[in-house]
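ok so for the tutorial part 2 we go from a plain amino acid sequence to predicted structure tokens. step 1 is just haveing the sequence, like this:
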Amino acid sequence: VQAASISITSLNCEQLTNPLGIDTKQPLLSWMIASSENNIRQSAYEIIVSTDKAGIDKNIGNVWSTGKVNSDETVFITYKGESLQPFTRYYWKVRAYDQNGTPSEWSAAAWFETAMLDASDWKAQWIGDGSKQFTRDEDFYQDDPMPLFRKSFSVKKQVASARLYICGLGYYEAYLNGKKIGDHVLDPGWTAHKKQALYVAYDVTAMLQKGTNAAGVMLGNGWYNPLPMRLFRNYNLRDYQQTGRPVVKVQLLVQYMDGTSEVVCTDDTWKTMPGPIIRNNVYLGEHYDARAEIKDWNKAGINESKWKNAVISEGAYGALTVQMQPPVKIEEVVKPVRIYEQKPGVYIVDMGKNFAGVARISVKGQKGTKINIRYGENVLPDGALNWYTTTAGHIKSMWNLTGGPGAPADAIQEDQYILKGEGREVYAPRFTFHGFRYLEIIGWPGKPDLKDIEGLLMHADLKQNGEFACSNDMFNQLHEVTLRTFMSNVFSVQSDCPGREKMGYGGDIVATAESFIYNYDMGNFYRKTVQDFINDQTPEGGMTEIAPSTGIADRGIGDGSGPLGWQLAFPYVQKQLYDFYGDKRIIENAYPAFVKQMDFINLKAINGLFHWDIGDHVALDPRAEAFSAASFYYAHAYLIAEFASILGKTEDAKKYKALSERIKTAIVRKYYIPNTGRFDNSTQAAQAFALYYGFSPDPQATFDVLLSEYARHDWHVSTGIFACKMVFDVLRENNRNDVAYRIVNQRDYPGWLFMISEGATTLWESWSYPENSSSQNHPMFGSTEEWFYRSLLGINPAKPGFKEITIKPEPAGDLKWAKGSYQSVRGKIVSDWKIEGGKYALSVEIPANTSATIYVMGQQSSVQAPAQAEYVGYENGYAMYRVPSGKYNFSANL
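step 2 — the prediction. this is what the tokens look like for a chain of 894 residues:
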């Protein structure tokens, strides 16, 4: 008998659907259970894995068959079948047993494919064009044509499958028979090349042709060959990472119908020529000379007599691993809303919104015509482009900040196109990206038209996991603006801004990780973040302020490590991967690095505490710097104690728990003002830190001081990036979401809606309008997103990976309704409430194989609950119910 009421959906391997290349020998498998019925639980599961499609179709697993496993788990099941072989497709299916022990039907077959499982599976070599690296800094700023590579090869038999594995450093574009392979841009993702470089697997079966074929690769500098530009006058990226001339490694595996295979690899038989990209840099932009194009360079059958042989080169020292985080893609083509001539020959184009990407132009003109495109986030009062907020590392003459020999006086984002003079020419840069709303165009032949210019909006191709809307239109606008800001800052690292810095600052990640996760599937993205920190861990064990590291260590604690609030990103992101996705493996893999970090931090403590940090960045009140440093020390200690406990390391757990208690005691002794509830300078931030970390001997008094601080500021924020995030949690846990609502709903300075009222289309880096320094596209204040989901919708994990769920919407202010959902690893969670005529109605949806506690606001006697809901008590104006999976409606009088 089969349980017709349940079906198995959403099979994934390593949190990906049918991944084309994985390089882990024991991948993690997950699925979801779908059912239209309530109260559905999995009591057991069965997995089969096979290399044989016909076998799996008959429900036979030839490499792994678990048999019936009594378990309700559906996420991160470790593969324990026969040893996986490289370059092999494995099919798999699952069936589950419901609470009565009745099996479901087998799921549809999913698959995963292995790539290189060992370094020895690589037969390809790194190749370059043999050009020598510049020795003088100023020479890096001259024209430096990027190499093209090609290889002709023959296909004589019928092809069963073909896979291309490629890493091109810094960036690459790959072609087969004249067509671009895949839809990724700006591959591979940025890593510390001395430790790790990423390769991508492509299915190119359909791109091969019988007879002669040609593979082509175009390279760019990316992060592998950066300019020696001193960002902020001090930081030359070339001093902190492995760099080199652009290189590529390609392995093409062709498997034939007759069971044979052959491999085409990069070696010194590949041919190379300089291409039309004559300059390219992630900050300054790209120059393209269309006159230097080589017709059909990436197609079969061209004359190669002028091409020279490629040179075997040194590539990245680090391990080559499969790129698992979502690739960057062109996600939208943005049409401009206005063009005007600011002065003769200078055209300003308004794209209507701030975003990250590049411009694409379509133009006709004479050969040799040079078009310059500059990018900026706003315009000045005279209508000229304002590029001040996006100059690389603030290198600008107005501040007398210089970038070193050869660097431009003003490090403006700028692309240049030189026409070949052949009909209509279309150009978009390949190897750079910008943050902008406005373009300044100089040199256009004639007058540009709206239809001649487009914006290519790019970001990591993250799956949207959350939905939110409410009756406050300004909140909905803030939601949209924040998501646009988030998407402008996911180019393989979670960056601070897409123009000036583009770097993965730890503090910004701590402030917004949950806000990102509620909206997007950040699993593989944040796993890369954790690895980025491990890659750049300092020799003594500290974590850098930024990962990959660029040398910035502002208020750090020695050995090139960052300040504690920024180092915290390393364990903090692991904690979110565990809480939201139930990922224990990341904690296990990173634990040795965390122990090393903790040993280093402990060595640097003075009298058991820390006394310096950047602190609550961009707070308006004076920053309690030493107190926040001590708090971040405590955060590291309690997280490692928790991780040790999760991993069953009892002795470690005891040791670190004791350490965290000692730190807490020292903090209270030093920073608590007895019998007052006050901590340190008693600002909003100081009180929020004390309550968030549970330091206060008298929490109510500390909370009262926090409220009095908000009242003193007329219910406006004075906090920076950390305390903004913390205070939403503190107010939720104290059932004072009315205060949070009041703060967020302020339309004047300082506040989120002040930015919206001023016309911001992305969040600013400061509470006041940034005219000449701070970015206008910066996610660090994005913690309102977490508040929307945790407090207004009330969706929170009660156990890792939402195995158990809490739904506690806290309606506040004049809100009439809020609705939304979160796609958890176990299924979709929905919260939808409205207030009408003194009545409160709440509808929820709880995924199969989970359970939830629902909090219903209203008079205790008036609550109406469905029959399956078990009443468990009443507190602070909420009736509480336990429910199994399913859809439920509740109502109450207010």
